[in-house]
Automatic annotation (TrEMBL):
Official protein name in the record: Phosphoesterase
Cofactor(s) required for function per UniProt: a divalent metal cation
Keywords: Metal-binding
Gene3D superfamilies in the cross-refs: 3.60.21.10
InterPro entries linked: Calcineurin-like_PHP_lpxH, Metallo-depent_PP-like, Phosphodiesterase_MJ0936/Vps29
Domain Calcineurin-like phosphoesterase: 6-155
UniProt KW Nucleus keyword: no
Amino acid sequence: MTRHTLLLISDTHIPARAPRLPRAVVEAIAEVDLVVHAGDWVDVATLDVLEHLSPRFVGVYGNNDHGELRERLPEVARFELDELRFAVIHETGAATGREKRADVAFPDVDVLIFGHSHIPWDSVSPRGMRLLNPGSPTDRRRQPRCTLMIVTVEDGVLSEVEVRTVERDFSAEVTAR
């Protein structure tokens, strides 16, 4: 049996919305095999930290990311875990019709991870693709809490999706080497 655990985050907006990654994000990295960031970093230092701390890392740039972030990150990233096909993108457009648009834009994907809205999202498209948005661990916007997602893949099947509340505790000191 193979098992993979993923941490999904997006829209960190550091330092505009938070001084650094919250303690809950840093602690979650220690629990997982793969960290995915779906864009809107704003600063390069957060990318450096996640690349340093993560056992494996996948990320994309968002609409608020420019310069070096766009040079180092793709607009769309793809990866596989036990033949389960993933894509990561920052923006997917309006919530209305999202699943149908995603089916057209990503016909060869089983799981689409996205950000931008700061709203946790877990839905299934008409053809069966899972769409996941972890919300934001630093900027809740109109949501009651900041969030992240922990996703489990077992034997090529997305078996569990957990939305975790993130407290605004920035006491974890983490830096890139």
